[in-house]
Give the backbone structure.
Amino acid sequence: MALLELDNVTHFFGGLRAVCNFSLTLQGGELMGLIGPNGAGKTTIFNLVSGFYRPSEGRISFLDLDITGLRPHQVTSRGIARTFQNIRLWNSLSVFENLCVSQHHQLGYGFLHSVLRTEKFVTGERRVKKRAEELIDLLGLGHYALEFPKNLPYGLQRRVEIGRALSLRPRLLLLDEPAAGMNPGDIGQLIETIRWIRDEFKLTILLIEHHMRVVMSVCGNMKVLDFGQTIAEGTPDEIRRDPRVIEAYLGGEEPGHARGI
């Protein structure tokens, strides 16, 4: 049984077709890359999987259950977490508080439990704080636990965002351009972090990335989009040599000149 399947998914924005008959099968433990020029439809696919958009056509299933059109919180509760192209952290909360707040929808108690400080509330809060402490330790954020994310370097903010996604205990992690805005040193660390997260947390990862050093280093398989359609799929070496990919990125230059891929 595949972990995630998209079957002929199409999505329109008004009269604009952003994604056309897109299909994908992602097996458990796989780390797949999704690449393509700007505007190719990559983030739209993430928004479809995570429930921010409802497909115009097609079906999305996760663990063999139809999740087409579910709301974001319903998708998250089934085991899918994501990061965003533009970092979305609560900058008025500390790193520790960010990793706590993200878990609260899973606790199953309401306002009255909070007011009365019932046993269910106390047990749940203890579990949330323990999980946040574990992630801070695992991700090397101990020195920054009480710092506001906005005061951290960009690479550390990305790590906090990934930690927040991991706090949800997902089966599938969607990473949307995690290398955006990073310097070369941060990118090298990110490559190691992505590999470590996949192995440490036994996760399946779908990665959107423009930085080819990252995607070529960590992904076993890749799909390439252009104008909302799949134009190539295969291993990094196969993608690097594919003339359709070279055409999409560089307007038809020879493979030897395809420095970005």
